[in-house]
Amino acid sequence: MTNExxxxxxxxxLQPEDTTGWQFLPATLAARALRQDRCAREIFLxxxxxxxxxxxxxGDDRQRVADGVVMAGVVCRGDAFTEKAIRKVIRxxxxxxxxxxxxxxxxxxxxxxxxxxxxxxxIHDGGGMCARCRRARQRSA
Length: 141
Known about the structure:
two-stranded antiparallel ribbon; 4 helices
């Protein structure tokens, strides 16, 4: 990966004049594939964020999505579907997975849910602790 965006000097990232179905042209498909292979994460996220407002004209009150380009691997057509796809890409690259801890951080016993009681497991209560350890910590505080 390089720090230079792959979209520079590549004709597949722009819609040719008066071309319908340009998103299926070989150059456009190659452009969409390039972003996955050669675009750095920071540049890719900046591209996705700017795609949300790239269609806005000067003096326009409402922000508009990009149209007629490939940005962040999405063929932008300036519609609601484009905005949804770009927001999905941003969410995928910025959201961190939130997983429940498998063992209590205090007593180190394996945890389960309240509805699924397993032998040898303690009930998960939140914050990575079991219900017993959380109550004990709350009483001592």
